[in-house]
Amino acid sequence: MAGVTEVTSGYTGGTTTNQTYSQVTSGGTGHYEAFEIHYEAHQVSSRQIYDLFSGPSIRRTPAGNFVTAATAITHQFFVSNKAQQQAAQAALSAAQSELGLRIVTQILAASAFTDAEEYHQDYYKGQNRVVTRREIKTESEAYAFYRDVCGRDTRVEQLWGSNAPFINH
Question: pTM (2 decimals)?
């Protein structure tokens, strides 16, 4: 997205330090998988970013989003100030109105952010070999397989139609 200068995968919201992916996803740390977005405010607004992310992973039930019920990967917005809180709320309200669905994505105060392990950064582009249930693939092939099998893109397209962001066609 024009104006976005950096996106870092990591963890936030919990009570432990030096947490790992395994610890976060197994529960008990209170952390969420998250990403931190740095952007140039003169090129893109926080509202535009919240609008973009209100679509693909909206949270419709307290137990998770439409593809998973895992607590660590539910959809939240973490905000640092009142302007971000207002922008996030406006984006969620607009998405709820457009979709005609109840959205329960929470808006939470930002807390300490810890970078995820290096192999999580730009994982979807990765060429490292990983083992899936059936074969060895690159990270990018495994990610594409996950997206297909979980039905993520199909569901996002059902909800948003031609306005659906982040769809692999």
Answer: 0.66
